[in-house]
Design goal:
Helix content of chain B: over 70%
Oligomer: heterodimer
Mean pLDDT of chain B: 82
Largest sheet of chain A: 4 strands, mixed
Structural class of chain B: mainly alpha
Order of helices and strands of chain A: HHEHEEEHHHHHHHHHHEEEE
Distance between the termini of chain B: 86 Å
Largest interface: A-B, 37 and 43 residues
Order of helices and strands of chain B: HHHHHH
Distance between the termini of chain A: 59 Å
Helix content of chain A: 55-70%
Number of strands of chain A: 8
Shape of chain A: globular
Low-confidence stretches of chain B: 177-184
Low-confidence stretches of chain A: 186-194, 277-282, 333-343
């Protein structure tokens, strides 16, 4: 497990360097084109400044931006005890030193994501739709998958990768637009128009068209690989791959579509929030592997260890392994046995009620219990001084 | 003079590299040992938490389960055995006994609809079930850290450094109670 984290860190560095080279080349070509011969250095500088500003913004504001864009609200243990317990359990299983903050999003589409560039200040968020759909074991599988993203430092990796891809896209688009508008001193300044400049111009155009595509393909490829790894880690944390498999099945069947997700935040969700059902085919522009494949891999695992996942992955996809050899070396083949003890009470309905309570309370609704067993929710701006119970007709004084 | 200097420098360089390498291995061993300690602390916290929850549970179910005095007493006794355990081996055994006693109590509780309907019991059941899970997961992680340490201590070349600085292999926290090895229950609710 530690080997895998170290491998991920090395990969992060490698990815940043290669994407930075791409960015530098783009900056150089743009500079040569727009600033005239010898302007390449200036272009590289501009590219670096754009990237630096974006990285700093993402580094210091990324989590809070992501959480607020998704409309996530922080909850405490009293609000949703079971969700809290499950997150605590997975904190222990993953060996994280600190439990992530727990957030809930009021959205009927079942989904979940993790945020936070370091495991110490991470957050996991689930939608209310998820809590209404999944039972305890399935919830555990989903949370384990998100904790794996935290634990494997995928969030950090994807943050860097996303920012680099974003910077490349922005620069290339600006450059291309500048060309369409007829900018570029090398063209307007006729006296300097040598053959060398023509070559640079072609190179610049090619780079500006190819670089964004390349950057995004790298980004998506990395993202898909991280999903498999997070699934494998989730199985090894819970020692119960069926929990995550059945959760994925339920989530993928849900008809609702999630609001508040963007292509930048998509890789952190448990399933791709931007794709409609049935469009889960794996292609170069998807952040997530096809969900049916993920379910099949999880279901044909013989045990719950990394080696079991790797074997199952090879069988299902007919491709090479997905787990780095260094991670396989120190991972034992865990059997799918957990401590049983007390079986928790039927939980989905209880969770649904609690998450409703939380959002009604947050929106200032008043709760009135009628003697007939009906619960009335009174909005904060309800003007009438009394409310009638729709079931038994009893009047409730609201003053 | 200069002819002599070259091999001396090479040897010196080799020695420095070797020492640095040794330091790296040593630090890795210390980190692994600290992780084992830390992960055991987590197991301990959860065991204590379960220990503290039990009086509350007994108080809640007592009124409903008049005819199950034996089951309740078994839990109380198992809890007493935990606090009376002296050695580590005794402690592990007593904790396993407590897990078994609690499992039986919750199995019996299934046939008391009034008790199951009580919100107090429902939240206690979730707490205890979760604590039970947490013990399991903390133990699972503890065993992982122990495995990591033992691999480092016993494999070459770590075993040389480990031998020099007296790093020993740790023991796994195994579950002896057969009940706990059962396949997980799947509920379709």
């Amino acid at each position: 497990m530690w080997e895998q984290i170290a491998a991920n860190r090395r990969k992060s560095i490698g990815l940043v360097i290669s994407a930075a080279l791409l960015l530098g080349a783009l900056g150089w070509a743009g500079g040569e084109y727009f600033l005239g011969q010898g302007g390449g250095t200036g272009g590289v500088l501009i590219a670096l400044v754009v990237w630096l500003v974006m990285t700093l913004a993402a580094w210091f504001q990324g989590d809070s931006i992501m959480l607020s864009v998704a409309g996530a609200h922080r909850v405490q243990k009293e609000d949703l005890p079971q969700l809290f317990n499950v997150v605590e359990e997975m904190t222990l299983a993953s060996g994280l030193s600190k439990m992530p903050a727990v957030y809930v999003i009021d959205d009927p589409a079942p989904n979940a994501f993790a945020a936070g560039r370091r495991p110490e200040n991470a957050a996991v968020a689930v939608t209310s739709g998820l809590l209404r759909t999944l039972d305890r074991d399935e919830l555990q599988g989903v949370i384990a998958h998100e904790m794996a993203h935290v634990r494997n430092r995928d969030i950090q990796l994807m943050l860097f990768a996303g920012v680099l891809a974003g910077a490349i896209v922005i620069l290339a688009e600006t450059g291309l637009r500048g060309m369409w508008l007829g900018g570029g001193r090398s063209r307007s300044r006729r006296d300097g128009g040598s053959d060398g400049n023509g070559l640079v111009a072609i190179l610049a155009v090619v780079l500006m068209i190819l670089a964004p595509i390349l950057a995004q393909l790298i980004y998506f490829a990395v993202s898909r690989k991280r999903e498999y790894l997070a699934d494998a880690s989730a199985a090894s944390f819970t020692r119960y791959p069926e929990g995550l498999a059945s959760a994925l099945e339920k989530i993928s069947r849900a008809p609702q579509r999630l609001g508040g997700a963007t292509s930048a935040t998509a890789p952190m969700y448990i399933i791709n929030p931007l794709k409609r059902n049935g469009q889960m085919a794996a292609n170069g522009t998807s952040t997530h592997p096809p969900i049916d494949e993920r379910i099949r891999i999880l279901r044909s695992m013989a045990g719950a260890g990394f080696a079991d996942y790797d074997r199952s992955y090879r069988e299902v996809t007919k491709r090479g392994g997905v787990i780095p050899g260094s991670a396989l070396k120190d991972a034992e083949t865990g059997q799918t046995a957990r401590s049983t003890g007390a079986t928790p009470a039927p939980s989905t309905r209880e969770n649904a009620r609690k998450v409703d309570d939380f959002f009604y309370r947050r929106d200032g609704y008043r709760k009135v219990e009628c003697a007939c067993g009906t619960t009335l929710r009174i909005p904060a701006d309800f003007a009438t001084p009394a409310a009638k119970c729709p079931r038994c007709g009893a009047l409730h004084d609201l003053r | 003079m200069a002819l002599l200097l070259v091999p001396v420098l090479v040897l010196l360089g080799l020695a420095v590299v070797l020492v640095m390498w040794g330091i790296g291995i040593y630090n890795g061993l210390v980190a692994a040992r600290n992780r084992v300690k830390e992960s055991w602390a987590q197991v301990d916290v959860q065991l204590k938490r379960r220990f503290d929850l039990i009086p509350n549970l007994i108080e809640t179910v007592k009124g409903y389960m008049q005819h199950e005095r034996g089951t309740l007493e078994a839990v109380t006794q198992a809890r007493a055995a935990v606090s009376g355990a002296g050695t580590m081996a005794q402690r592990v055994e007593a904790e396993a006994g407590l897990t078994g006693a609690l499992g039986r109590l919750f199995a019996v509780a299934e046939s008391y609809p009034d008790l199951k309907a009580s919100t107090n019991f429902a939240s206690l059941q979730e707490e205890l079930a979760s604590t039970e899970n947490k013990i399991g997961f903390a133990r699972q992680f503890y065993n992982e850290t122990v495995m990591n340490l033992n691999n480092k201590v016993q494999m070459f070349p770590g075993n040389i450094v480990a031998g020099m600085f007296h790093f020993g292999a740790e023991t796994f926290f195994e579950v002896k109670d057969e009940v706990q090895r059962e396949a997980p229950k799947v509920s379709f609710s």
